[in-house]
Amino acid sequence: MxxxxxxxxxxPPLKTVRFGGNVVATLxxxxxxxxxxxxxxxxxxxxxxxxxxxxxxxxVALRLPWLGRSPAVVEEYLxxxxxxxxxxxxxxxxxxxxxxxxxxxxxxxxxxxxxxISDSDDDDENLPRSFDQCHQALQLIGRYVPSTSCFLMPIxxxxxxxxxxxxxxxxxxxxxxxxxxxxxxxxxxxxxxxIISRMLKLDVSAPRGEIEExxxxxxxxxxxxxxxxxxxxxxxxxxxxxxxxxxGTNVMVHPVAERLDTLMVVLLAFIKDMCHVNGCLDVERTxxxxxxxxxxxxxxxxPTHASCHVQYALFYLCSFRLALAEAFLEHLWRxxxxxxxxxxxxxxxxxxxxxxxxxxxxxxxxxxxxxLDLLVPWLHLYIDSQDSGSRAYCDITLHGxxxxxxxxxxxxxxxxxxxxxxxxxxxxxxxxxxxxLERIVMCQLNPxxxxxxxxxxxxxxxxxxxxxxxxxxxxERNNRHVLPVVRSSVGGDCVxxxxxxxxxxxxxxxxxxxxxxxxxxxxxQVWEEPADTEVDTVTTKRVRPCSDADEDDFLxxxxxxxxxxxxxxxxxxxxxxxxxxxxxxxxxxxxxxxF
Length: 595
Fold this sequence. Notes:
mainly alpha, 6 strands, RRN3 homolog, RNA polymerase I transcription factor
């Protein structure tokens, strides 16, 4: 071939080389089932020769469009996968990545305001069938390669969608992860840990007060909009969008709350289906799931400060059987007593114990009394060990678990005193008197000084009514000694009185997610204002008043919303402590849930 003197720019190639026809014809063959089947059969015939040197060819074969195709294509593709992972295990990860990548809806580009936003395609009617085929492929791979689970979990973690993705994308992926946990039970604990860790990120970024404020503001805007003339709506796009907002439906207006609500529906449906067979509770399966959830609770939920909703997964599971609820309470009790655990976790365990006793309406009074019979004697023993020593004074850093246990007892009695007294007032009063609450209140450690004022005041009113202990003298004395102030978050000379020195929160405060709340509400003890108990609110000086959005039950502004903190260590807790502060339809089976 002559090269010298050749005009390269203006001279066409002397010879045209083609591989399998032109590009247009090749692309057209991708739509033909017969052609795809033919290619897959050829790959199967030479699978033993497809070594690492042919990885680019294998990657092309793995990307063949097989999902949603005819049964013949799907069957041939699954046969190709089984042959490939059997003969060439070096491609196991590639096959797993291909399957897991299809756990989410296909990505489409949506233009909003001139900006291309990539997200899921919600209109794909083939999603249920495609997901079924993915799980069929994954089970087939696991059958041929027993070590599949060891390689699968990192891929599931790697492919988890960013938490800011759409509710649809998150729902599909989490649902598929939980389906994996059904047929690969060895991965269930890891899968639950992955899902709950992501849900906690959503939970702590959407405080309860913020969710309620957004929902309430939207309702008010809609009511205001309805009073305007109809013509104004057509001229104002913002008003139109408000008018069509989902405030009156089961869809959350708060975007993060909507994602979290969607995932809670999926998780609670999974828990229900795993524990029931043909509508009946399977005790062994339930116990196994409980063990997994408690491990995840200890590792992720318990150390997370101010999460609002994710912990209700365990609350819901415990409602299936009293033995589960009692096991959970016993677990919290062990954590509270344990000297080997950091004080911050012991304090959190006390908060969970008190909140669970107060709010779980499926707990009989006998269980409540049994827990009080553990907590109260422990408080008396603690007082015995401290009252005559050099540390017998009010100090949160020294006695944090003690103060949180005191608050748990006070909080439990506020909610449960009537059930204790019902039936036999004389025996109920005798039991409450036997607790010797006066000694706890009067001790030198002074728990009323650090407990939430709302809890203290309500406890004082109830105990005064039944002449168990008179707390108001101590409350007034404590109020004369100003609590330490915290640094202002806005600078200058403005400071706030710290009304929550324990930095406590009640994990089972009211549940505000709309759709998933349908499963929680029947199990939940709401606060009922005692009509015959007048609460004496002792006036305290407050520089910064709390807003209505901070109010929760009788805790009127006493627990201001704080940023959730995941995975707190004792050191980080100390710095945080002192720093500024399907719509309308019943739930359906998890495994049969459509997309």
